[in-house]
Design goal:
heterotrimer; A alpha+beta (about 400); B mainly alpha (about 325); C alpha/beta (about 190); A: about 400 residues; alpha+beta; Cytochrome-c3 Hydrogenase, chain B; 3-stranded antiparallel β-sheet; 15 helices; 10 strands; B: about 325 residues; mainly alpha
Chain lengths: ~400, ~325, ~190
């Protein structure tokens, strides 16, 4: 038996200083929502210093996108925030459409709005489930998954995938909605508000839940702006910033909804904001179903896979080699304008922005993704400092980070 | 001959308790499963009835991992301390009139002593693992045990005053005269304090801080695996049972029921224990977890003062009424 | 306020720093010199009728293949948005060809901390006055900056850290850390138990 490695639990103590206990949480840890690592310096259980470390899931999407055509890079966005992949797809498509000046039919806009909000429900349900589980409320976790399952089944009905959809296309969406989908979605909308009430009875008025969330992880409005927080984290601090209202995209200017605002900026305020957002999402989806206009689902100038009967005449002649089902448009240099564009959408986690530079080629010259999770994790150090170890877990849950999006 | 008889009784009790522990896990998984709109174990045996046996066999044959840096003797002793302490407390529990292994005069104190010893197991496990998460779990457990042992001890003083004894059998018999044949109503404050301390003492939700999985991975038993982990598990469930038994004996009138059951006198006692166990599980399915400092606040600022008030009031009433 | 109007205000306020404006699809970008970036952004943030208080994104761009004589090799792009006034502007700071560097804006937006670290990590643009300029997404000992155009898609070589990791595993093996070899798939179950 060789001598053991030099590593024991001895804690060095400097004169007049509190004893520090360094703890490395993650990258494998039940509550870090993926592969987040947090290096902590503790005094007892109080956090003196908190250093989040990311990058374990870095796949170089920005570099990859530079080497793929616009429609090929779409699938990369599925893997950003895989909880709400649909919202990322829509954000990406909107950015490319604006960059290349491609129009989207009204029906496709409505469908996109609808799936974006479904995505928001999915994401918020998963957030609530894991956030509650982090704080110890185990049953909410399974209740949320019950409803999320219905949504995933609906997505499967819509596009055949449950996690990585790639359903929206540049210039529209991939397939039309079926009447079965609409019926099932309507049934879901009818029951879902009562299910939200069910979660709320379990945790909303629970004394322990309130003790763990009220006044914990407080971020003031100015601080939240400086830290770059967006989404419910910013609105929980009382700043009215929702891109669906500020820079409406798709059909968001056609539907009515409210932006719930908090005031205290603590975990409870963020929690209430997201719970109210779920009600608003239901409201938006209902309006989308009611107002869904007839028409095509993909624009004629879409540089993408389109159904044969939608192919513009000028390309049809040369396209016979591409089989009977789907026809790939021949890359037309005129389609690609040069210039740069920043388009942001309100995804469940916050503001997801795409900054594109096009040099007229059929591949992006540069694609930068402004991912809310990355910025939120960066803010974690400031928010968690001086609080207890257990609050750190609650804060991570409350910021609602997804490491796939953070690390890209 | 009496020693032999005693041995047989001990073995019977041991086997029954082990079976009980195994099926308590099944009970818990099934109940929580149904509360959480799922089914719980369904695969092994009819409705998963053989699942506890399968789990036992699995953990028995699992690889036994001891971390390189662990303090080996302490690491190995810790789960056994837990189990032994919990098992020993079973000796003084009166399951029915005369159904008790050791009818000693200081039964209640003995159980306290043993449950305090069990917490040494947890603290030592946290220390000996030489893992940061285990260490924090051990520390939390130490703080929690110190605060809640006091509250729990004080909450039972009222019962001792009313019954005038520390012998568990006599405590049960003394309850015969009070309302409903139990001390639940006269000692309602005591019961309230006892019930909360009981949850904390057994490390159950909402006080499961020493093993809070989302914060400390698995707390003091992070580094344990296989049979050693199973021993901690058993100790926890026996602990739940012992605490439920104390609650039954001191507040719910022990084996007394609306009518006497022929052939199987402990029936009421067992039913009351299962009621407690059910409430344990129900709470686990419902409540979130307290934070460490809030737990301390609750213990020192609410429960201990309440228990002290209860003692004074009980003593005064006892002195006045006689 | 229209983006063009903001650009005109900026030109009037900082004539020496101003280089050009570019408009594409209604979005206006102002190309500036990097020297007084903190002053410009503070002015944009704090002026009463501009109040561009939200730093939406900060990223670096490698212009080596963009055939535009106005642009230098590297630039840093700031997308700003005013939440109260609902207007936006893009600032593109040309930061030079070799050893690109620009002043850090962490003092204005503390959230820029990680964005600048990311730009440093992936593009190799350094930020003067940054409190903690380390790599953020890639390992500390990574060589090169992947988003530069000369960096090949598949990378140049294997990350050097992997050899260190393999050596570490061997060293641990010598201490009997992993006798069964589970960690790297060499199953030799009959070795001594610790």
């Amino acid at each position: 038996m060789t001598p053991p490695l030099k590593q024991t639990l001895e804690i060095p103590v400097a004169d007049g200083e509190a004893e520090r206990y360094s703890l490395r949480m993650g990258p494998q840890h039940p509550a870090t929502h993926g592969v987040l690592r947090v290096d902590l310096e503790l005094d007892g259980e109080t956090i003196i210093e908190c250093k989040p470390q990311v990058g374990y899931l870095h796949r170089g999407f920005e570099k990859l996108a530079e080497n793929r055509t616009y429609s090929q890079a779409l699938i990369l966005t599925d893997r950003l925030d895989y909880i709400a992949a649909m919202a990322n797809n829509v954000g990406y498509c909107l950015a490319v459409e604006k960059l290349l000046a491609i129009s989207v039919p009204l029906r496709a806009q409505y469908i996109r709005t609808l799936v974006c909000e479904m995505s928001r429900l999915c994401s918020h349900l998963l957030w609530l489930a894991t956030h509650a589980l982090d704080i110890g409320a185990m049953t909410v976790f399974l209740y949320c998954f019950r409803e999320r399952e219905i949504l995933l089944d609906l997505f499967e009905e819509l596009c055949g995938a449950r996690l990585t959809f790639s359903y929206p296309r540049i210039g529209g969406v991939r397939q039309d909605v079926t009447s079965y989908f609409i019926d099932e979605l309507q049934r879901f909308l009818d029951i879902f508000p009562s299910r939200i009430a069910e979660y709320e009875t379990l945790i909303d008025t629970n004394r322990i839940w309130l003790k763990r969330t009220v006044g914990v992880g407080v971020v003031s409005g100015d601080q939240a702006l400086a830290l770059g927080l967006t989404g419910a984290c910013l609105r929980g601090s009382g700043v009215d910033y929702d891109l669906r209202k500020h820079q409406p995209y798709d059909a968001y200017d056609q539907v009515e909804f409210e932006v719930p605002l908090g005031s205290d900026g603590d975990i409870y305020a963020r929690y209430r904001c997201r719970m109210e957002e779920m009600h608003q999402s239901v409201h938006i989806i209902q309006q989308c179903i009611d107002q869904l206009p007839p028409g095509p689902i993909i624009g004629l100038d879409a540089p993408d896979l389109v159904m044969p009967n939608k192919v513009p005449a000028r390309i049809e002649a040369g396209s016979s080699t591409y089989g009977t089902g789907l026809i790939r448009l021949i890359r037309d240099r005129d389609l690609y304008l040069s210039g740069d564009i920043y388009v942001a959408t309100e995804v469940p986690k916050g503001e997801l922005g795409f900054y594109f530079i096009s040099d007229g080629n059929n591949r992006p010259y540069r694609m930068h993704i402004r991912s809310p999770s990355f910025i939120h994790i960066g803010a974690l150090a400031t928010i968690a400092k001086g609080e207890m170890l257990a609050d750190l877990i609650a804060n991570i849950g409350s910021l609602d980070v997804v490491l796939g999006e953070s690390d890209r | 001959m009496t020693i032999l008889l005693m041995l047989v009784q001990i073995i019977v009790l041991f086997v029954l308790v082990m079976l009980h522990v195994a099926y308590a896990t099944y009970f818990e998984r099934k109940i929580i499963g149904h509360m959480q709109v799922r089914l719980g174990p369904m695969q092994v045996g009819w409705h998963g009835l053989l699942q506890p046996i399968a789990d036992g066999i699995k953990s028995f044959f699992k690889e036994d991992i001891i971390p390189e840096q662990a303090d080996r003797p302490t690491f190995m002793a810790a789960p056994i301390i837990c189990l032994v302490a919990m098992m020993t407390s079973l000796a003084v529990l009166p399951f029915a009139k005369g159904w008790v292994l050791a009818d000693i005069n200081i039964g209640l104190l003995f159980i306290f002593a043993m449950s305090s010893l069990a917490s040494y197991g947890v603290v030592l496990a946290g220390w000996a693992s030489n893992s940061k998460f285990s260490f924090l779990g051990g520390l939390r457990s130490m703080a929690q045990v110190i605060s809640y042992e006091i509250a729990m001890g004080l909450s039972l003083v009222g019962v001792m005053l009313m019954s005038g004894s520390l012998n568990l059998t006599q405590i049960v018999e003394a309850q015969g005269n009070s309302i409903l044949g139990m001390y639940l109503l006269p000692q309602c404050i005591g019961f309230f304090v006892f019930f909360i301390s009981m949850l904390a003492e057994t490390n159950r939700v909402p006080f499961d801080l020493p093993e809070a999985e989302t914060e400390l991975v698995s707390g003091y038993c992070t580094e344990y695996s296989g049979m050693r982990y199973a021993i901690f598990f058993m100790a926890e469930y026996i602990g739940m049972m012992v605490m439920a038994a104390i609650g039954t004996v001191c507040f719910l009138g022990g084996w007394n029921g609306p009518f006497a059951v022929p052939f199987f006198p402990p029936l009421w006692f067992l039913l009351k224990i299962y009621l407690f166990m059910f409430i344990f599980i129900w709470i686990r399915a419902t409540l979130p977890r307290y934070r460490y400092d809030q737990l301390m606040d609750l213990g020192w600022k609410l429960l201990i003062p309440l228990a002290l008030v209860n003692i004074v009031v009980t003593a005064c009433l006892k002195a006045m009424i006689g | 306020m229209e983006s063009m109007a903001i650009a005109d205000r900026l030109r009037a306020e900082f004539p020496d720093e101003f280089l050009d404006t570019v408009t594409h699809q209604g979005q206006t970008a102002v190309i500036i010199r990097p020297g007084r970036i903190v002053a410009i952004l503070r002015w944009l943030r704090d002026t009463d009728d501009l109040r561009l208080n939200h730093l939406r994104s900060l990223c670096g761009v490698d212009n080596v293949r963009r055939k535009d004589p106005r642009l230098s090799r590297f630039e840093v792009v700031y997308n700003l948005y005013s939440i109260p006034l609902r207007h936006e502007i893009r600032i593109r700071a040309e930061v030079g060809d070799k050893e690109p560097a620009i002043d850090s804006v962490v003092g204005l937006w503390s959230g820029a901390n990680w964005l600048e670290r990311e730009t440093y990590d992936l593009m190799g643009i350094s930020f003067n006055g940054h409190p903690d300029l380390r790599r953020v997404l890639l390992p500390e000992d990574w060589k090169g900056h992947p988003l530069r155009k000369e960096y090949p898609l598949k990378g140049k070589e294997e990350w050097t850290g992997i050899t260190e990791l393999l050596e570490k595993i061997k060293e641990l093996d010598q201490h009997g850390f992993d006798p069964a070899g589970h960690a790297h798939g060499q199953n030799q179950p009959d070795e001594e138990e610790p």
